Automatic annotation (TrEMBL):
It comes from Ancylomarina salipaludis. This is tRNA-dihydrouridine synthase. CDD domains: DUS_like_FMN (cd02801). Catalyzes the synthesis of 5,6-dihydrouridine (D), a modified base found in the D-loop of most tRNAs, via the reduction of the C5-C6 double bond in target uridines. The keyword Kinase does not apply. One of its GO terms (molecular function) is flavin adenine dinucleotide binding. Its cofactor is FMN. It is an enzyme of class 1 (oxidoreductase).
Amino acid sequence: MKIALAPLQGFTDLVFRRAFAKYIGGIDQFYTPFLVLQKGDELRTSHRREVEPNVEENLVPQFIGNSLKEFIFFRDYLIDLGYKKMNWNLGCPFPMLVKKKKGSGLLPFPDLIEEILSGGLDDRIELSVKMRIGYDSSDELGAVLSVLNQFKIAEIIVHPRLGKQLYKGEVDLKAFEQAMVLSKHPITYNGDINSLEDFQRCLEQFPSLESIMIGRGLLKDVFLAKKIKGEDISSSQERLDLLEKIHGEIYDSYDSYLSGDTQILSKLKPIWEYFASNFNNERKVYKAIKKAGSIKKYNAAVAFAFQQGAKD
Ligand SMILES: Cc1cc2nc3c(=O)[nH]c(=O)nc-3n(C[C@H](O)[C@H](O)[C@H](O)COP(=O)(O)O)c2cc1C
């Protein structure tokens, strides 16, 4: 089973990915959160930093856009940097982007997807797509997949919710099954795998799956990919040590290029929304971190987290 770490804007940036690869492992493919052009042709420094220089192993840059011009910009930019794979985001549900026919907002417009792929695909770089099962209705799925079937696409990652659902409600496994039947490209499952049991259930339902992508589940239990691969780290002390190492690495990396408590805390604190679940008494841990208004208080809250021990 191939396991990818899902891109999560604000969480899985280069600092997190590199620390994860160095200390935890179990991941076959990493993705950047989506890169986007500002004012049609500018890429923010923070987005450039995600992919420049090209040094991360198994990193697939992801971009979002709804025009051939944007597609070609990212394609050529990533080819120039030496990347062999790129991922097009057709899944983002943020209303501001959806309104502009970006992310899942492009799913009701298969003709536009076709036009972009016709003009934009290039043999020098492999394309994968990450998508929802539709924006408004899963009835959109068939038309989108029949367009994708016409092109050379390496992989389609399907998160079986509608764009309009955001992250609410159940995943629609019937629609996912339909995607597996309709697509001639390999399909990767993504959504709500938070435990080994969730993974086993998924595999029972879709025994032909060869690849999954996990986001929040891997932030809440950083050892989940290793558990799935049967490489569990058995001692709780060993896990705690690794959690300390990954946190220390993330802390030091932000500290090296950000300045001032406010900037550093604005990167570190949000991670704990999910990361706190790696510890016993996760609610108390998260509350302590959220309350910390200075680096000194943050460090005290982190020490409190580590005193609670690693969850089984
Ligand atoms: C805070 C947040 C940010 C996200 N950012 C991105 C993104 O940049 N690109 C993307 O394709 N998906 C993004 N996603 C969606 C995830 O990659 C994934 O599809 C979704 O969380 C479902 O998988 P999970 O249940 O394993 O987390 C984001 C999700 C969340 C919650």
